[in-house]
Design a protein that fits this description.
Elements lengths: L2 H16 L1 H21 L4 E7 L9 H17 L7 H9 L2 H10 L2 H5 L3 H11 L1 E5 L5 E7 L2 H59 L8 H24 L7 H18 L7 H31 L8
Antiparallel strand pairs: 1-3, 2-3
Length: about 300
C-alpha cells in the first residue's frame, strides 16, 4: 500500500469515528420509529382450513351421478370438465354467492367502509385465499384484524360449501330418482311382456327354456349395457346442451358397444331370441333398480361432503 492510499484510508476512518454517534443515533431512531409504527398498526390474523379431496366420480346413481353434478357445477362456473373435484369446490368457495353470504353474515360492509357490495367484495377477496396443492388438498384461508372473525369467516365458508354440496346432491338425486322411477316401471312392463311371449312359445312348442344358454347370457350382458348407456344419455340430455362433454363421452361408449354388437353371431332360433329378450330385461331391471335405490339415498343424504 503506497503512502497516498494509506493517507486516504486514515482520513476515512477518522471521519467515520467522528460521525459514529450520529450514525448510531440515526439507526437507533429508525429502529424506534419502526417499532412504534408496527405497534401502532393493527395486527393481521390468518385462519386456514384444509380439506381432503372429495371422492372421484363413479360412486353413485348410474356410477355417474357425481360426475353429472360436477358437470353442471362446472358449466355454471365456466370451468372445463377436466377440473378435479377439489378444483370445483375451490371455485365454489370463491363464488360471489358464498362470498356475499359471508360479507352479509359478518357485517363486512360496515367493517371495510366500502361503497356498495361490489367494492366490498373486491376488498373481501383480497383477504381470501383458496388453493389446491399437487396432492389435491383444498385449502381456504382468510385474514382479518380480528382473530375471531378470521376464524369465523373461514369456518362459515367451509360450512356453506358443505351446505351447497348437500343441497346440490339432493336436488340431482331427486331428479334422477324421478327419472329412474319411470324407467324402472317401463322395464318391468317390458319384462312382463317378454316373459309372456316366451311362455306362449314354450306352451305352443311344448318346450321349456333351459336358462343356461351361454350365447344368450353373453349377448344379454352386452345388450343390457347398451340400454343402460342409452338411459344415461337420455338423463344427461335433460339438463345439458348438445356437445356437452358428458353426453359425448356416453355416445362414444355407445358407438364402441354397437361396434361389438355388430360382430356378434345372429341368434336364429326363435326360442333363443325370446329367451334373450327376457334375460336382457331382467338384467336391465337389476341395473335400474340398483341405480334407483342409489338415487333415493342421494336425495335424502345429509352426511358431510367435505372432510376438514
Amino acid at each position: 500500500m503506497d503512502h497516498t492510499t494509506s493517507t486516504t484510508a486514515g482520513r476515512f476512518l477518522a471521519a467515520f469515528r467522528a460521525r459514529l454517534r450520529l450514525y448510531g443515533g440515526i439507526l437507533g431512531a429508525t429502529a424506534i420509529l419502526s417499532a412504534g409504527i408496527s405497534l401502532a398498526l393493527p395486527s393481521w390474523y390468518r385462519a386456514e382450513s384444509t380439506m381432503l379431496p372429495p371422492p372421484e366420480n363413479g360412486e353413485s346413481g348410474f356410477g355417474l351421478l357425481t360426475g353429472m353434478i360436477q358437470s353442471s357445477a362446472l358449466s355454471s362456473l365456466g370451468m372445463g370438465t377436466k377440473a378435479t373435484p377439489s378444483d370445483v369446490f375451490g371455485e365454489i368457495l370463491k363464488s360471489r354467492l358464498l362470498n356475499e353470504a359471508a360479507i352479509t353474515r359478518f357485517g363486512l360492509l360496515r367493517v371495510y367502509h366500502r361503497k356498495g357490495m361490489d367494492r366490498t367484495l373486491e376488498e373481501f377477496r383480497r383477504h381470501l385465499t383458496v388453493s389446491v396443492n399437487a396432492a389435491g388438498l383444498l385449502s381456504v384461508s382468510f385474514e382479518d384484524h380480528d382473530a375471531r372473525r378470521a376464524a369465523d369467516v373461514t369456518n362459515f365458508l367451509v360450512a356453506e360449501l358443505d351446505r351447497f354440496n348437500v343441497e346440490t346432491y339432493k336436488t340431482r338425486g331427486k331428479r334422477l330418482r324421478q327419472f329412474l322411477e319411470a324407467r324402472v316401471a317401463d322395464v318391468q312392463q317390458q319384462l312382463a311382456a317378454s316373459e309372456e311371449r316366451l311362455q306362449d312359445y314354450e306352451r305352443e312348442h311344448k318346450v321349456v327354456s333351459s336358462g343356461d344358454n351361454e350365447s344368450v347370457h353373453g349377448v344379454s350382458d352386452i345388450l343390457a349395457q347398451k340400454f343402460n348407456l342409452e338411459t344415461q344419455r337420455d338423463y344427461v340430455s335433460t339438463f345439458t346442451s348438445p356437445g356437452n362433454a358428458e353426453r359425448e363421452n356416453i355416445q362414444r361408449q355407445l358407438t364402441a358397444l354397437n361396434g361389438q354388437i355388430g360382430k356378434l353371431p345372429e341368434i336364429k332360433k326363435e326360442g333363443a331370441r325370446l329367451e334373450l329378450g327376457v334375460e336382457v330385461q331382467r338384467k336391465l331391471l337389476l341395473l335400474m333398480t340398483a341405480q334407483f335405490e342409489d338415487a333415493r339415498m342421494q336425495e335424502t343424504r345429509d352426511t358431510p361432503t367435505v372432510t376438514v
